[in-house]
Amino acid sequence: MAAAAQGQSELSVLRHVVESGRADGVVVTRIAEVDERLAYLRQRNFPFVAHGRLLDGDFAYHWLDTDGAHAFGEAFDMLYDLGHRHFGLVTISEPMTFRHLRQDGLAAAIARRGDPSVSLDVATAPRFDRGARIQAINRLLHATERPTAIIALFDELALTVMEEAGRAGLAIPRDLSVIGFDNIAASAYAPPGLTTFDASIRQCAREIGEMLLTVIGDRPDAPLTRLVRPTLVLRASHGPAPTGRN
Protein backbone atom coordinates (compact mmCIF):
# COMPACT_ATOMS: atom_id res chain seq x y z
CA MET A 1 0.00 0.00 0.00
CA ALA A 2 1.35 3.43 -0.90
CA ALA A 3 -0.17 6.78 0.06
CA ALA A 4 0.88 10.34 -0.61
CA ALA A 5 1.55 12.50 2.43
CA GLN A 6 0.18 16.01 2.62
CA GLY A 7 2.05 18.18 0.14
CA GLN A 8 3.41 15.18 -1.75
CA SER A 9 2.22 14.35 -5.25
CA GLU A 10 0.72 10.93 -5.95
CA LEU A 11 2.85 10.74 -9.10
CA SER A 12 6.06 11.03 -7.09
CA VAL A 13 4.94 8.18 -4.81
CA LEU A 14 4.01 6.08 -7.82
CA ARG A 15 7.38 6.74 -9.46
CA HIS A 16 9.12 5.50 -6.34
CA VAL A 17 7.03 2.31 -6.25
CA VAL A 18 7.73 1.57 -9.91
CA GLU A 19 11.38 2.57 -10.10
CA SER A 20 12.39 0.97 -6.81
CA GLY A 21 11.03 -2.39 -7.93
CA ARG A 22 8.75 -2.64 -4.88
CA ALA A 23 5.85 -3.98 -6.96
CA ASP A 24 5.23 -6.05 -10.09
CA GLY A 25 2.01 -4.18 -10.84
CA VAL A 26 -0.23 -1.50 -9.34
CA VAL A 27 -3.88 -0.59 -8.91
CA VAL A 28 -4.61 3.09 -9.46
CA THR A 29 -7.72 4.63 -7.92
CA ARG A 30 -9.58 7.97 -8.06
CA ILE A 31 -9.02 8.53 -11.76
CA ALA A 32 -9.01 12.14 -12.93
CA GLU A 33 -10.42 13.28 -16.27
CA VAL A 34 -6.80 13.63 -17.45
CA ASP A 35 -4.53 11.52 -15.25
CA GLU A 36 -0.75 11.88 -15.32
CA ARG A 37 -0.31 8.67 -13.31
CA LEU A 38 -1.82 6.52 -16.06
CA ALA A 39 0.21 8.30 -18.73
CA TYR A 40 3.38 7.59 -16.74
CA LEU A 41 2.55 3.90 -16.22
CA ARG A 42 1.76 3.37 -19.89
CA GLN A 43 4.96 5.16 -20.94
CA ARG A 44 6.89 2.81 -18.64
CA ASN A 45 4.91 -0.21 -19.92
CA PHE A 46 4.31 -1.11 -16.29
CA PRO A 47 1.42 -3.47 -15.42
CA PHE A 48 -1.55 -1.66 -13.88
CA VAL A 49 -5.33 -1.72 -13.57
CA ALA A 50 -7.32 1.45 -12.96
CA HIS A 51 -10.45 1.68 -10.84
CA GLY A 52 -12.15 4.23 -13.04
CA ARG A 53 -11.89 5.71 -16.51
CA LEU A 54 -10.33 8.61 -18.36
CA LEU A 55 -12.39 10.85 -20.62
CA ASP A 56 -10.01 10.07 -23.49
CA GLY A 57 -11.52 7.01 -25.18
CA ASP A 58 -8.41 6.57 -27.35
CA PHE A 59 -6.14 5.92 -24.35
CA ALA A 60 -6.02 2.10 -24.16
CA TYR A 61 -5.49 0.57 -20.70
CA HIS A 62 -6.96 -1.96 -18.28
CA TRP A 63 -9.81 -0.71 -16.09
CA LEU A 64 -12.86 -1.60 -14.03
CA ASP A 65 -15.51 1.00 -13.29
CA THR A 66 -19.09 1.35 -12.04
CA ASP A 67 -21.71 2.73 -14.41
CA GLY A 68 -22.53 5.94 -12.60
CA ALA A 69 -24.11 7.46 -15.70
CA HIS A 70 -26.75 4.74 -15.78
CA ALA A 71 -27.36 5.06 -12.03
CA PHE A 72 -27.96 8.80 -12.18
CA GLY A 73 -30.29 8.35 -15.13
CA GLU A 74 -32.18 5.70 -13.17
CA ALA A 75 -32.41 7.99 -10.13
CA PHE A 76 -33.82 10.82 -12.24
CA ASP A 77 -36.39 8.58 -13.94
CA MET A 78 -37.62 7.23 -10.62
CA LEU A 79 -37.99 10.71 -9.14
CA TYR A 80 -39.58 12.09 -12.30
CA ASP A 81 -42.19 9.33 -12.22
CA LEU A 82 -42.91 10.34 -8.62
CA GLY A 83 -43.84 13.81 -9.85
CA HIS A 84 -40.61 15.72 -9.22
CA ARG A 85 -39.73 18.43 -11.72
CA HIS A 86 -37.33 20.68 -9.81
CA PHE A 87 -34.09 18.84 -9.10
CA GLY A 88 -30.88 19.63 -7.28
CA LEU A 89 -27.45 18.11 -7.82
CA VAL A 90 -24.77 18.25 -5.12
CA THR A 91 -21.34 17.61 -6.61
CA ILE A 92 -17.63 18.33 -6.22
CA SER A 93 -15.34 20.76 -8.02
CA GLU A 94 -12.40 18.39 -8.54
CA PRO A 95 -11.95 17.13 -12.16
CA MET A 96 -12.71 13.48 -11.40
CA THR A 97 -14.06 11.31 -14.19
CA PHE A 98 -16.76 9.72 -12.04
CA ARG A 99 -18.16 13.20 -11.40
CA HIS A 100 -18.26 13.94 -15.10
CA LEU A 101 -19.90 10.62 -16.04
CA ARG A 102 -22.58 10.74 -13.35
CA GLN A 103 -23.50 14.32 -14.21
CA ASP A 104 -23.65 13.40 -17.90
CA GLY A 105 -25.97 10.50 -17.07
CA LEU A 106 -28.31 12.86 -15.25
CA ALA A 107 -28.22 15.41 -18.07
CA ALA A 108 -28.95 12.72 -20.67
CA ALA A 109 -31.94 11.42 -18.67
CA ILE A 110 -33.35 14.95 -18.43
CA ALA A 111 -32.88 15.45 -22.16
CA ARG A 112 -34.64 12.16 -22.98
CA ARG A 113 -37.80 13.35 -21.23
CA GLY A 114 -37.91 16.54 -23.27
CA ASP A 115 -40.00 18.19 -20.55
CA PRO A 116 -39.51 21.98 -20.36
CA SER A 117 -40.93 22.02 -16.82
CA VAL A 118 -37.85 20.16 -15.53
CA SER A 119 -35.17 22.33 -13.93
CA LEU A 120 -31.85 21.50 -12.31
CA ASP A 121 -29.90 23.53 -9.74
CA VAL A 122 -26.29 22.54 -9.06
CA ALA A 123 -24.37 22.99 -5.80
CA THR A 124 -20.61 22.54 -6.12
CA ALA A 125 -17.84 22.57 -3.50
CA PRO A 126 -14.36 21.09 -3.03
CA ARG A 127 -14.63 17.46 -1.95
CA PHE A 128 -12.84 17.79 1.38
CA ASP A 129 -14.04 21.28 2.37
CA ARG A 130 -16.97 20.54 4.67
CA GLY A 131 -17.67 24.22 5.34
CA ALA A 132 -17.96 25.04 1.64
CA ARG A 133 -20.09 21.93 1.12
CA ILE A 134 -22.55 22.98 3.82
CA GLN A 135 -22.77 26.49 2.40
CA ALA A 136 -23.45 25.18 -1.11
CA ILE A 137 -26.12 22.78 0.13
CA ASN A 138 -27.85 25.46 2.15
CA ARG A 139 -28.02 27.71 -0.89
CA LEU A 140 -30.15 24.98 -2.47
CA LEU A 141 -32.25 24.34 0.62
CA HIS A 142 -32.99 28.00 1.32
CA ALA A 143 -33.58 29.13 -2.25
CA THR A 144 -36.86 30.88 -2.98
CA GLU A 145 -37.69 28.03 -5.36
CA ARG A 146 -36.24 25.03 -3.57
CA PRO A 147 -35.70 21.70 -5.36
CA THR A 148 -38.07 18.93 -4.30
CA ALA A 149 -35.46 16.24 -4.99
CA ILE A 150 -31.68 16.27 -4.62
CA ILE A 151 -29.28 13.72 -6.11
CA ALA A 152 -25.84 13.71 -4.53
CA LEU A 153 -22.65 12.57 -6.23
CA PHE A 154 -21.95 10.15 -3.37
CA ASP A 155 -23.39 9.19 0.01
CA GLU A 156 -21.30 11.52 2.15
CA LEU A 157 -22.77 14.48 0.30
CA ALA A 158 -26.28 13.01 0.49
CA LEU A 159 -25.99 12.52 4.25
CA THR A 160 -24.92 16.15 4.63
CA VAL A 161 -27.98 17.19 2.61
CA MET A 162 -30.19 15.21 5.00
CA GLU A 163 -28.52 16.75 8.07
CA GLU A 164 -28.89 20.30 6.77
CA ALA A 165 -32.46 19.66 5.64
CA GLY A 166 -33.30 18.60 9.19
CA ARG A 167 -31.76 21.78 10.57
CA ALA A 168 -33.87 23.76 8.10
CA GLY A 169 -37.05 22.10 9.36
CA LEU A 170 -37.58 19.99 6.24
CA ALA A 171 -38.91 16.47 6.59
CA ILE A 172 -37.49 13.73 4.38
CA PRO A 173 -39.08 12.53 2.17
CA ARG A 174 -42.27 14.59 2.74
CA ASP A 175 -40.62 17.90 1.81
CA LEU A 176 -37.48 16.72 0.07
CA SER A 177 -36.31 13.49 -1.58
CA VAL A 178 -32.59 12.65 -1.41
CA ILE A 179 -30.64 9.96 -3.29
CA GLY A 180 -26.95 9.09 -2.91
CA PHE A 181 -24.41 6.73 -4.41
CA ASP A 182 -22.06 4.10 -2.86
CA ASN A 183 -24.24 2.50 -0.15
CA ILE A 184 -21.75 3.19 2.64
CA ALA A 185 -22.64 1.69 6.03
CA ALA A 186 -23.94 4.98 7.45
CA SER A 187 -26.53 5.29 4.68
CA ALA A 188 -28.60 2.49 6.20
CA TYR A 189 -28.70 4.07 9.66
CA ALA A 190 -29.08 7.80 9.00
CA PRO A 191 -32.81 8.49 9.56
CA PRO A 192 -34.97 7.75 7.64
CA GLY A 193 -32.52 5.56 5.68
CA LEU A 194 -30.82 6.82 2.51
CA THR A 195 -31.91 5.55 -0.88
CA THR A 196 -28.68 4.99 -2.77
CA PHE A 197 -26.81 2.79 -5.24
CA ASP A 198 -24.63 -0.12 -4.20
CA ALA A 199 -21.45 -0.11 -6.28
CA SER A 200 -20.41 -3.61 -5.08
CA ILE A 201 -17.04 -2.20 -4.08
CA ARG A 202 -15.77 -5.39 -2.42
CA GLN A 203 -16.57 -7.49 -5.46
CA CYS A 204 -14.98 -4.83 -7.68
CA ALA A 205 -11.81 -4.97 -5.57
CA ARG A 206 -11.63 -8.75 -5.97
CA GLU A 207 -12.12 -8.48 -9.72
CA ILE A 208 -9.47 -5.76 -10.01
CA GLY A 209 -7.02 -8.00 -8.12
CA GLU A 210 -7.75 -10.87 -10.50
CA MET A 211 -7.36 -8.56 -13.49
CA LEU A 212 -4.01 -7.29 -12.22
CA LEU A 213 -2.68 -10.83 -11.80
CA THR A 214 -3.69 -11.55 -15.39
CA VAL A 215 -2.03 -8.36 -16.62
CA ILE A 216 1.20 -9.17 -14.77
CA GLY A 217 1.30 -12.81 -15.82
CA ASP A 218 -0.07 -12.78 -19.35
CA ARG A 219 0.54 -9.21 -20.60
CA PRO A 220 -2.62 -9.29 -22.76
CA ASP A 221 -2.51 -7.31 -25.99
CA ALA A 222 -6.11 -6.10 -25.74
CA PRO A 223 -7.21 -3.97 -22.77
CA LEU A 224 -9.17 -5.76 -20.07
CA THR A 225 -12.25 -3.67 -19.24
CA ARG A 226 -15.28 -4.18 -17.03
CA LEU A 227 -18.24 -1.86 -16.45
CA VAL A 228 -20.28 -2.80 -13.37
CA ARG A 229 -23.97 -1.85 -13.11
CA PRO A 230 -24.75 -0.46 -9.62
CA THR A 231 -27.84 -1.74 -7.81
CA LEU A 232 -30.51 0.66 -6.58
CA VAL A 233 -31.06 0.25 -2.82
CA LEU A 234 -34.53 1.51 -1.97
CA ARG A 235 -34.84 2.98 1.51
CA ALA A 236 -36.99 5.80 2.86
CA SER A 237 -35.35 9.07 1.74
CA HIS A 238 -37.34 9.38 -1.49
CA GLY A 239 -41.04 9.77 -2.16
CA PRO A 240 -43.64 11.65 -4.20
CA ALA A 241 -43.12 15.31 -4.96
CA PRO A 242 -44.73 17.56 -2.33
CA THR A 243 -48.28 18.52 -3.22
CA GLY A 244 -48.44 21.86 -4.96
CA ARG A 245 -44.66 21.89 -5.73
CA ASN A 246 -42.92 21.39 -9.09
Descriptive notes:
With 246 residues, this protein is an alpha/beta fold. It is 38% helix and 17% strand. It has helices spanning 10-19, 36-44, 68-81, 97-113, 130-141, 155-167, 201-218, and strands at residues 26-28, 48-51, 63-66, 86-92, 119-125, 149-152, 177-179, 196-198, 225-228, 231-233. Strands 1-2-3-9 form a four-stranded parallel β-sheet, sandwiched between helices. Strands 5-4-6-7 form a four-stranded parallel β-sheet, with helices on both faces. Helix 1 runs parallel beside helix 2, helix 3 runs parallel beside helix 4 and helix 5 (130-141) packs across helix 6 (155-167). The longest helix has 18 residues, at 201-218. The protein is elongated, with a radius of gyration of 20 Å. The mean pLDDT is 95.
What keywords describe this structure?
alpha/beta, four-stranded parallel sheet, 7 helices, 10 strands, elongated
Q: H/E series, N to C?
A: HEHEEHEHEHEHEEHEE
Count of alpha and pi helical runs: 7
Radius of gyration using CA atoms only = 20 Å
Distance between the termini: 49 Å
List the quaternary state of the chains. single chain
Major sheet attributes: 4 strands, parallel
